[in-house]
Amino acid sequence: MPLHPTHPLYKLFNPDAPEMSEEEKAKLESATYECGCHCGYIKYAVTLTPPLPEYEVLHCNCSMCRSAGYLLVYPERKNVKWHGDSQSRCAVYRFNTKQKDQLFCPNCGTSLMIDFKNWGRVFDGYGVSVRTFYGIDLDSLKYEKGRGLEYAPPAKDLSGTQWEIDEKERLEKEQAEKGAHPTPA
């Protein structure tokens, strides 16, 4: 199933495709969905063009998407509206190259979305898990099989080892800082 021309990543995979005009974009139908974590601590709204029944939800095979259970849609940053202070309540997990923040609820653990803020050159938005959309039927959606392992293979197999890697880096950094700034005894 090919990406819809309004999909934020469409041009990345179809560089020769013509740009949609603003007039064409204005004629397209959109829909806004209320979303949030399981416990209700984090809430937000997502506007999608086209609406979810016409959208191709990405079911990626990379290690993170598989572990988090992500089924992703890709709204631009301006199309995600956080309710109250929900954005500041999110916990963050970074792995491997640490270029993307994986946002989740610190209370119930719901995997919410991926923040692509450090990917501005390609896409300034989020990969939002449709599992967080209230009142939708996942079986009624159209899915695109993602091949994240092909596009961004892991540097090495990190399964079950990311904490040890991060802890080793933290300890090395801490030791280097102590060496650079000796503390009085």
From TrEMBL:
<feature type="domain" description="CENP-V/GFA">
    <location>
        <begin position="33"/>
        <end position="164"/>
    </location>
</feature>
<keyword id="KW-0862">Zinc</keyword>
<protein>
    <recommendedName>
        <fullName>CENP-V/GFA domain-containing protein</fullName>
    </recommendedName>
</protein>
<dbReference type="InterPro" id="IPR052355">
    <property type="entry name" value="CENP-V-like"/>
</dbReference>
<keyword id="KW-0479">Metal-binding</keyword>
<dbReference type="Pfam" id="PF04828">
    <property type="entry name" value="GFA"/>
</dbReference>
<dbReference type="InterPro" id="IPR011057">
    <property type="entry name" value="Mss4-like_sf"/>
</dbReference>
<dbReference type="GO" id="GO:0016846">
    <property type="term" value="F:carbon-sulfur lyase activity"/>
</dbReference>
<comment type="similarity">
    <text>Belongs to the Gfa family.</text>
</comment>
<dbReference type="InterPro" id="IPR006913">
    <property type="entry name" value="CENP-V/GFA"/>
</dbReference>
<dbReference type="GO" id="GO:0046872">
    <property type="term" value="F:metal ion binding"/>
</dbReference>
